[in-house]
Amino acid sequence: MALISTKDAAERLNLSVRRVQDFLKEKRLPAQMIGGVYMIDEKNLALVKNRKPGRPKASTRALRARKQS
After folding, report:
1. Ranges of each domain in the chain
2. Which residue, 33, 40, 35, 42, is CA-closest to 5?
3. Which CATH number describes the domain made up of 3-68?
4. pLDDT tens, 10-48?
5. What value does the CA radius of gyration of the chain take, rounded to a whole number of Å?
6. What is the Cα–Cα distance from 56 to 28, expressed in whole angstroms?
7. Distance CA 24, CA 15 (A)
C-alpha cells in the first residue's frame, strides 16, 4: 500500500488539488488522515480515474431558480 498526498493524486489524475479534495468530501475517493494531512492509497485513484470530463449538468430546478434571480 503506497500512500500519496492530495497534491500527488491531483498530478497523477491531471486535476486540481481542489477537485481531489472535492472527491474526498464527496466520499468518492477514500483517504486516511495522517498527521493532519489526507493521504490516499494510490490504488484508489482508479475509483475516479475514468470519471466523465467536465462539470455535471445542473438540474432543471436549479436552472429555473437561476433564471428567476
Report:
1. 3-68
2. 40
3. 1.10.1660
4. 999 999 999 999 999 999 999 999 999 999 999 999 998
5. 15
6. 15
7. 13
